[in-house]
Specification:
The protein has 110 residues and is mostly helical. It is built from 5 helices and no strands. It has one domain.
Length: 110
């Protein structure tokens, strides 16, 4: 299956994750929240490996949509547009995650 054929399926999965994220926020108990988080992990585990690797720093529904938009732009910039602010937001979320990882090095010395 080509990347372009995977996109509609990935978008449906992102919508499911978005719904689960909304439910997690209003879960009435910690047990229900845990169940919803486990469902979120299981759904996100169905993404193609390359997609999971590319979105590991920003794996929420919003970050996944952002990644798809940036990916589409770089694959075909003449047909897909992206604003400078959208591209900046993508890189900001990516580099913020990397900075967070670096700051945890203190807790995990070699």
């Amino acid at each position: 299956m080509s990347d372009s054929e995977k996109i509609p399926e990935i978008l449906k999965l992102i919508d499911i994750l978005d719904g689960l994220e909304a439910l997690i926020e209003v879960a009435p108990t910690e047990d229900v929240e845990d169940i919803l988080e486990e469902a979120w992990l299981q759904v996100s585990d169905t993404f193609p490996e390359d997609f999971k690797a590319a979105t590991q720093h920003d794996a929420g529904a919003e970050g996944l949509r952002r990644y798809l938009k940036v990916k589409a732009f770089f694959e075909n910039p003449s047909e897909r547009s992206i604003s400078a602010s959208e591209l900046e937001e993508y890189y900001r979320s990516y580099t913020a995650s990397e900075e967070d990882e670096e700051s945890t090095d203190f807790f995990f010395p070699d």
